[in-house]
Amino acid sequence: MALVLRFVDSITAGRTVRLDVNDGSWWRLTADSRFDPPAARRTRVSTSLTDGARYPESTYDDRLLELRWQLRCDNADAAVEQLALLARELDRDDGNILEYQPPGLTHTMFFRTHRLGLDIAHMPAEPDWLQVEVNLPAEPFAYGLPEVLPAVTVSNDPAAASNGMFFDIAGVKGDVAAATLITETGLAWYNSSVLFACRCRGTPANVPFLLQAEAMTLGTDTTLPGNDATASGAGSNYAQISFATNTTLTPARLSKVYWPAAPSTDARGTYRVLVRVKRSNATDPVSVRLRAGPDGSGTAPAVDTIVTALTTAWQVLDFGLVSIPFGADPVGYGPSGVEVPTKGIAVILNASRDSGTCTLAVDDLLFVPADESLLAVDAGNDSFGDGYILDSANDVMYGWVTSGSDEAVDSAADLIPLGGLPTLRPGVTNRIYVLSHFRGQMLPSGSVSLQVTYWPRYLYLRGASS
Amino acid sequence: MSLPVPLSVALITDRGTRRITREVRDLTMRDVVPGGHASCVAPLHRPLTIQPDEIRYYGRMVVTDDRNGTVIFDGRLEDPARSAGPDGQIWELTAMGWSAHASDRHVPLVYADRDYTRWVPTNRSPQLRLSSDLDSADEPGLLMQFDTGASLTVAIHGGYQYRTVREVGQKLARVSVRYDMGVAGSGAKLRMDLFSSATNALRVDWVTTPASASRVVGTDWTLGDDVVQLKFERATGPVTAGAADWIRLDRIAVRTVLMDTSGTEITTGYSADTVLAHEVVRDLVGRLLPHYDGSSIVDTATHPIDQLAYPTGVSQRQVFEDLMLFEPGHYWAVWEKLASGLYRFEWTEWPSTVRYDADVLDGYSSTGSGDGLYNAVRVYWRDVDGQPRQTQRTSSVPDLTAASLTREAALHLGDEVGSLANAQRAGDEFLLDHAAAPNAGRLTIARPVLDRIAGRYLMPWEIRPGHLIRVRGVLPRGDALNATTRDGVTVFRVVSRTYSASRAVAELELDTYSLSTAQALAALQRQRVRR
After folding, report:
1. How many Å apart are CA A138 and CA A394, to the nearest integer?
2. Chain B hits for A50, Cβ within 8 Å
3. What is the spatial distance between Cα A280 and Cα B101, in angstroms, rounded to a whole number?
4. Do B447 and A54 touch (CB under 8 A)?
5. Could you tell me what percentage of chain B is helix, strand and coil, using 3-state DSSP and rounding each to the nearest 5?
6. Between chains, do A413 and B473 touch, taking CB under 8 Å as contact?
7. β-sheet bridge partners, residue B377
8. 3-state helix, strand, coil in chain A (%, to 5)
9. With contact defined as beta carbons under 8 Å apart, do A175 and A143 qualify?
10. Over the stretch A16-51, which tens digit does the pLDDT of each residue have?
């Protein structure tokens, strides 16, 4: 198979060739062409106070494709026409897509190039061949053809037997994080919210995500009344705080020492803690405080205290970030590179009622991983009514209409996505958490259907199995 | 960890949200205390011939930590500057933190007013002479006296009126007065009348021993009255006025009705002539700062403020600055937008627990100037009778004592916050703050820093001012291990954090803003003219 080098209109299976620049007739790519991997770009911090330097940030710079051709010019007009075609491809406003497949490689790959003109076009000593040189900057990573994964249904019940507020993707191809598209369709999306988070290291199944209230130690005025169909899990699935003997924040209502119970490396991380509660009336002032951390003296440091909203619907209290372990963490054992396991933390829930007779039900505590990427989305009344797409390649979230044969971007004025869009990483199991209506009731009865498409990305060239 | 800086930038307007992270050339964010989010600059390559939907005055600019969704900066776009040059066409977007909202309005305000110059004569009989007075204890007062020999009929013969509260659009909450007469008896009265409702709140006999009286809204008049009068009434007569027919009024104090953070008027609880700083803060949030959420206001102020009046106008930021004169252990700050749609507003104390542990390995500089040490301060103000006053406060500073040196600063309170009690408080707090040399230095952070309170490591952009930091690698001191305040040597207050994405470092200013031309110019621009 001859080397493939051509400008195309898309990175899809149905792409159209715009200009073949190694057609063997007019264009011959010469051996001095280079497709070097992207250079590193680092910020270096160094002082005389310590040996060595630090690199607080590092990124890949654009790749430079050094393309060298021989262009047949026995027909001057035709040769100039070919040069013009090349110049036009290089001059496209938004850059171009250059497909490249060396001889013997199983898979093709694509470079997204930037707009640039010709560098050199001259007549060498050899007659009838014009030497053409282009130093073409391109995005750092080469792309593979899109991988369309089967749709997955994610339950909004964290205690579901499968895909409870998450789904896993393994076997991702590529060398670096893939350009990822997550499509959700079929869900009316007004005045809603969704939270996406990623855990893409270790064994995601060991992440201490769900802590059911009924699995915690019951404290003052706290009982397990039974089953609530709107709470997560089965059987006796929520705890109730009556404030019968104590209405202050002092006593522990629910506690877990330690969470998770067993030390592990997968427990290590930063988590955003959401607590799902429900009041019995909408009038009395009730507050909830989360404590998390070491439990040496029987109490752990307070994370935050939240005044519950005056509603009898389920509500989700966002307590912000906690870390496991709490405090100093070496991560590794000396310079060995071996990650040391971490013990869990004490988790304590306090609650107070300033007046009245309100009781408080607690469903669960969710420890959402918050150290890789987390995206919180608020959609107002002007948002779309069909579905949405998360597009990490273009760093955008938008509405998506899929009515009949129509597929199009849907306008959404008051859609606010803040944080990092989820991406897939090769060589690991990617667990993506999806919490629908996390600013609302986050009812466990719902589910969403998601379909993931990704374009693998490569630092150099694409191997047969990658 | 060495990765791309995981921050994303979004512009939010009523026409949608646009994530512009990949388009910005750089990102520089600054947080300060007092104030909170101060500024964020993000140069953007865009054609100047198009007005993008997402670039609008007072549109929202949000910088988020992609790892956890935390908002790092939340501000309003105020300066979308444009330029064209060798670097191309650039929109230099500058967003200001929502602390700028505290400068949006310049309005007259009165909280506690003892200024006699605002009491003006009213309805007085021709024979009634009104004047200011200084008694044997040098205490200023107001005098009402009849011409000797004048015939006094049964009538209200006039007096003094205070209408400043009406002028500023507020309502009376409490009026106090101390009174003393030349002769005792029930034939003449001192009255306190509310003008709008024609309510008589006080009517007392004459006494020759000074007596005090206070009247409050709800009990003595209905909510809404805004003009009060202190008058002479002849209850029996006619009589001929003698030399002892005089009333002397002093220690006159007026308070206005406060609001809570939701803007609801507080109609009870006015048991003192003074107001506390956190009460004023709550009032400002509820009255004039509708975009702030007031849940994080702590009620820990202790100094009873007896003079806080701005009848010629003030911004809320300036009121906060004055409150911090009396409560320098407190600061105000505005941070990110909450789910309620309001911006998180703090009025809180400087903590007494070290939050951050860092070292000097990435860079440290400290001027440690002795110019910040003072063992005396003279505080000037304009008293209730409009006369200039001053008081000197002193303290003991070991370094200055050892050098046999007295360094005396000057503070000017004007008449807006001028009173003896306020002057003494402001002076004492100034000296406390200047007993140790402020660092006025910079600490560079290029690596994660341990947050001892949250128990996790923070990246440089997550560090917030308003907390104490312990810096290893400088002179070690045992008492730095359990420090409860800055010591200028090892434990410092973080007063600002500037993060630059291109350098991937945070620069912290410690104790005070560092000595620079930019800071000096900013200080000049913020200077106020005291009245």
Report:
1. 16
2. 361
3. 38
4. yes
5. 15, 45, 40
6. no
7. B393, B409
8. 5, 45, 50
9. no
10. 999 999 998 999 999 999 999 999 888 888 877 778
B180-208: average pLDDT: 92
Q: Using CA coordinates, name the residue in chain A closest to B452.
A: A327
Q: What is the dihedral of CA A229, A230, A232, A238, to 10 degrees?
A: -80
CA gap B451, B30 in Å, rounded: 19
* Residue from B1, B20, B67 to probe the interface with A (highest A Cβ count within 10 Å): B67
In tens, the pLDDT along A147-194 reads: 999 999 999 999 999 999 999 999 999 999 999 999 987 665 666 889
DSSP state string for B128-166: EEEEEEE-TT--EEEEEEEPTT-EE-SEEEEEEEE-HHH
Residue B266 in contact with residue B259, Cβ under 8 Å? yes
Between CA B298 and CA B294 the distance in angstroms is 10
Reply yes or no on whether the pLDDT at A236 is more than 60: yes
Q: What is the pLDDT of residues B63-84, one digit of tens each?
A: 999 999 999 999 999 877 777 7
Residues of B in contact with A195 (CB under 8 A): 69
Check if the beta carbon of residue A252 is closer than 8 Å to that of residue A349: yes
Stretch A199-216: mean pLDDT: 94
| Record: contact B19-A416, CB cut-off 8 A | no
Asked if pLDDT for residue B476 goes beyond 60, the answer is no
Residues of chain A found within 8 Å of residue B470, distances taken between Cβ atoms: none
Q: Is A42 on the interface with B (CB under 8 A)?
A: yes
**Dist CA B381 CA B387 (whole Å):** 8
The answer to whether the Cβ–Cβ distance between A420 and B504 falls below 8 Å is: no
- A55 and B2 within 8 Å at the Cβ level: the answer is yes
Chain length of chain A: 466
Q: Is A52 on the interface with B (CB under 8 A)?
A: no
Out of B14, B16, B446, name the one closest to residue A54 (CB): B446
> Residue B322: which H helix or E strand, with range?
helix B316-326
pLDDT band at B37 (very low <50, low <70, confident <90, very high): very high
Across B108-127, average pLDDT: 90
B15 and A413 within 8 Å at the Cβ level: the answer is yes
Is the dihedral angle over the CA atoms B469, B470, B474, B478 positive or is it negative?
Answer: positive
CB of B300 closer than 8 Å to CB of B267: no
pLDDT at residue B438 is higher than 70:
no
Contact B506, B463 (CB under 8 A): yes
Predicted local confidence at residue B526, as pLDDT: 60
Highest mean pLDDT among A284-298, B315-329, B404-418: B315-329
A307 shares contact with chain B (CB less than 8 Å): yes
> Which chain B residue shows the shortest CA-CA distance from A293?
B455
- Both tokens of residue A276? 């799902």
How far are the Cα atoms of B200, B284, B293 from residue B263, in angstroms, in the given order?
29, 9, 11
For residue B421, pLDDT over 60 is answered with yes
- pLDDT of A120: 67
Q: Which residues of chain B neighbour A370 with C-beta distances below 8 Å?
A: 67-69
Angle subtended at Cα A317 by Cα A313 and Cα A322, rounded to the nearest 5 degrees: 160
Phi then psi for residue B524, to 5 deg, are -60, -40
Tell me whether residues A327 and B452 touch, CB distance under 8 A: yes
| Nearest-angstrom CA–CA distance, A307 and A353 | 10
pLDDT of res. B503? 87
Q: Could you tell me which chain A residue has the CA closest to the CA of B73?
A: A418
pLDDT for the residue numbered A190 = 60
pLDDT-derived band at B440, boundaries 50, 70, 90: low
- Confidence (pTM): 0.85
Q: Output phi, psi for B431, to 5 deg.
A: -70, -35
Contacts of A420 in chain B (CB under 8 A): 6, 8, 64, 66-67, 69
